[in-house]
Amino acid sequence: MKxxxxxxxxxxMNVYDSQRMGDLLVPLGYEAASGPxxxxxxxxxxxxxxxxxxxxxxxxxxxxxxxxxSRSRAGEAPVIAVAGCVAQxxxxxxxxxxxxxxxxxxxxxxxxxxxxxxxxAETGRPVIETEFPAEDKFDHLARTKVKRGVxxxxxxxxxxxxFCTFCVVPYTRGSEFSRxxxxxxxxxxxxxxxxxxxxxxxxxxxxxxxxxxxxxETWSLAxxxxxxxxxxxxxxxxxxxxHPRDMSDDLIAAHAENPKLMPYLHLPIQAGSDRILKEMNxxxxxxxxxxxxxxxxxxxxxxxxxxxxxxxxxxxxxADFAATLAIVREVFYAGAFSFxxxxxxxxxxxxxxxxVPEEVKSDRLARLQHLLGTQQKAFNxxxxxxxxxxxxxxxxxxxxxLIGRSPYLQSVYIDAGTxxxxxxxxxTIDAVGSNSxxxxxxx
Length: 443
What we know:
Elements: E1 2-8, H1 12-25, E2 30-32, E3 41-46, H2 53-72, E4 79-83, H3 84-90, H4 92-97, E5 103-105, H5 113-123, E6 127-129, E7 151-155, E8 157-158, H6 169-172, E9 177-178, H7 181-193, E10 198-202, E11 210-212, E12 218-220, H8 221-228, E13 236-240, H9 249-257, E14 264-266, H10 274-280, H11 286-299, E15 304-311, H12 318-331, E16 335-340, H13 358-382, E17 387-395, E18 401-405, E19 411-415, E20 424-432, E21 437-441
Helix pairs in contact: 8-9, 12-13
């Protein structure tokens, strides 16, 4: 067997893409390597969202170049590939700057990986594939036969038409595209056969999903979720990441009506200031967001919310930042991701006046994260004494211990007794740690 090492950076969609690349390589005789040192093929599946993302990749490629040169002397030179959004954005620049790279391909062309490997072997020259192909890559991805864990990601929508001024996604992932329902259902059923019990539906704007349905009509995400929830073996469904502008009435209703849809919603606002939201081209005001949250909570009172926040966007004043803190206090988040604004080349915000000094961004981020951390701790503390179902996912650190996920995505440790990974058990939460909960099985 040949061995492959795939390193994923960034978002959950990259994790999904990396798994599908692994599926593509199985018929070619590849199995997972323990690390790059013993791999015949090394793939860096990259993310371009954060600042200096490309430089981190080049740094990693520098280390891999030395590894390749060392193994070349023994006649074992690995093939090195750069995939994902940095590959899409940088293209030929990667081959020019990083000697030893054999393949460069974007997130829309990884289905051609077997062909690209063959071309590299035949020509001995680097292969670069960063075009947006006319064909649907998902039509070329084999049905997975690889054993999965209890939970899995499933991409249903890709790309973005929103063009937020800070974001590179429309340029690296392309315009919005929704997979047909039949294709998604087939993959979901294959995941169930591979042992999956919980599926998270993925998309850059997943709630903008509008795929071809089984009846010839265009289906919404809510209708897709209803359909998938009827598959035997699927115990839980989630979706991420959503945009406030696409949170439709039927999707809100699905949270109230579908017991398999978990009461946890990631709904980014990014900033609390209407002026900054306008500069970001988010297409909504803070008031719109708050009214939407009220409607969601009316439909599903026990729902927990998470969000994304950017501090230090160009032109952000202390008053603008205070508006973000005010939104956080009003909404109350069970979890969140927060970042300092980082200019991405080619995006409108990168050329805006009023770039905020780094020390100001750092100070604001620390204050925001303190507030968010306080809320997350309070949410976890409020779970103490509650009964809730958890899905057992993996072993814990101690004998007889297993770790599961609550409906709110918290890690929960239990003494499992006769229960096994994949079981759904009812527990009572006993204690709250810094990043997890502990519980006992509820009789």
